[in-house]
Amino acid sequence: MSYSDGRLSMDLDPLERGPQDACGVFGVWAPGEEVSKLTYFGLYALQHRGQESAGIATSDGERIVVYKDMGLVSQVFNEATLDSLGGHLAIGHCRYSTTGSPVWENAQPTFYTAREGGLALGHNGNLINTPELAAMLPDQRRGATTDTEVLTNLLADRAHQGQSLEDAAVELLPKVRGAFSLVFMDENTLYAARDPQGIRPFVLGRLGETSGSGGWVVASETAALDIVGAKVVREIEPGELLVIDGDGVRSRRFAPTARKGCLFEYVYLARPDTTINGRNVNSTRVEVGRRLAKEHPVEADLVIPVPESGTPAAVGYAEASGIPFAQGLVKNSYVGRTFIQPSQTLRQLGIRLKLNPLREVIEGRRLVVVDDSIVRGNTQRALVRMLRDAGAAEVHVRISSPPVLWPCYYGIDFATRAELIAANLSTEEIAESVNADSLAYVDLEELIAASEQPKNELCRACFDGVYPLEVDADSQGKYLLEKACGTPEGSTLATSHK
């Protein structure tokens, strides 16, 4: 199976990915700073959240310029491009598609012209009432292929009718259901909004406070603030709209908070050096590993992680069990999205394109292999085979999340329930399927305890099927809005003049 642009399906062993988040978003208001370069580095720090396309919109107070293309942040932008994106205000986006095809037309930021100027918008998350919102569009603005484009059109239409963008957002956002961390802008103002459940992380930072420049930054994760030298101020609250301009930061409430932060962010999605709602992600993952060791001990010689996402939990497992920690697998850091299809010979090598075993470490040893999750089981099956080929005496798989039993409708591209191996096989059957000597998952309550978040403030739907927002599964789907899939047409510049 391949994508329409010729890329391999990530379901194939050679490049099978873990669960993917919808996107990363970044915004900066900082007169006197090179905002395009700040945004570039912010997106670079958020690259793990989306690798299909990247884009930046900037404004100098007179016009908005948008540049976006397919590929990684470092592939889309160069020094000359960034130098052409001048101004005091910028937003940026890196995308993994959960609504709409991975093609240039669906790359973000989206851009539309209203009566008083332009509107550019970037979105992390996934909406669950997209058909209802699309029906609100006037005829001339129909034909959107993503939930983000629908949202942008609705805001632009209200602004075109004479509403301020701020008032349009306060009126529209209470009608929007699902996960959204939004950055958007007109020629002079940066806006940031978070859904009432706060499903995806979103933070506000202060830039250059000591130098007196007084800039402001918003980002999907605190790690992106660290990269650009911004100080974390606080989380953007669920149900809050921030308005940032020359008068500073103004907060408006468009809905009451009903916090349901995504628990899977702590398991896999977020960077380990990020802090979410006061809890460091790496510390959470190490603690999960400790709890996993106490819950599911085994006699073994070494604990090895599946790099990189399994490493913190493996450290915790080794610490709590007293079994030595070792790096038994070497990861090729440069394997990600590829436009080259491997030959059948290379395809048969499977996971070795990503990971290669250290035979000297593994041979003759009883191994505890710690990974973050099992979705379809293909990766674990290939991994266990590879370790046995390298001479492992026993392979005991330990997973630092509970079984993934249900799909996510809020911005994680999990498989359908029919494809989720844990929804169809028992733990013992999965162990047999992947040829492991044993398999065990951390308990959901132990994971919640490690996150140090109140249980009633977490979305755990992928693990327990309890969705914080009622979802009509028949109205969902990645290609719901698309009548036809286009193909990438290359980068372009879009401009608006006030």
From TrEMBL:
Q: Where is the Glutamine amidotransferase type-2 domain?
A: 23-247
Q: What are the names of the required cofactors?
A: [4Fe-4S] cluster; Mg(2+)
For this protein, the record's CDD domains field holds:
GPATase_N, PRTases_typeI
Per the entry, the cofactor note is: Binds 1 [4Fe-4S] cluster per subunit.
**Could you tell me which Gene3D superfamilies the record lists for this protein?**
3.40.50.2020, Glutamine Phosphoribosylpyrophosphate, subunit 1, domain 1
What catalytic activity is recorded? 5-phospho-beta-D-ribosylamine + L-glutamate + diphosphate = 5-phospho-alpha-D-ribose 1-diphosphate + L-glutamine + H2O
Positions with a binding annotation for [4Fe-4S] cluster = 262, 408, 459, 462
The pathway noted for it is: Purine metabolism; IMP biosynthesis via de novo pathway; N(1)-(5-phospho-D-ribosyl)glycinamide from 5-phospho-alpha-D-ribose 1-diphosphate: step 1/2
Gene Ontology MF annotations: amidophosphoribosyltransferase activity
**Pfam families associated with the record:** GATase_6, Pribosyltran
* PANTHER family with a match to the protein in the record: AMIDOPHOSPHORIBOSYLTRANSFERASE (PTHR11907)
Give the function comment from the record. Answer: Catalyzes the formation of phosphoribosylamine from phosphoribosylpyrophosphate (PRPP) and glutamine.
Tell me its family.
Answer: In the C-terminal section; belongs to the purine/pyrimidine phosphoribosyltransferase family.
Protein name listed in UniProt? Amidophosphoribosyltransferase
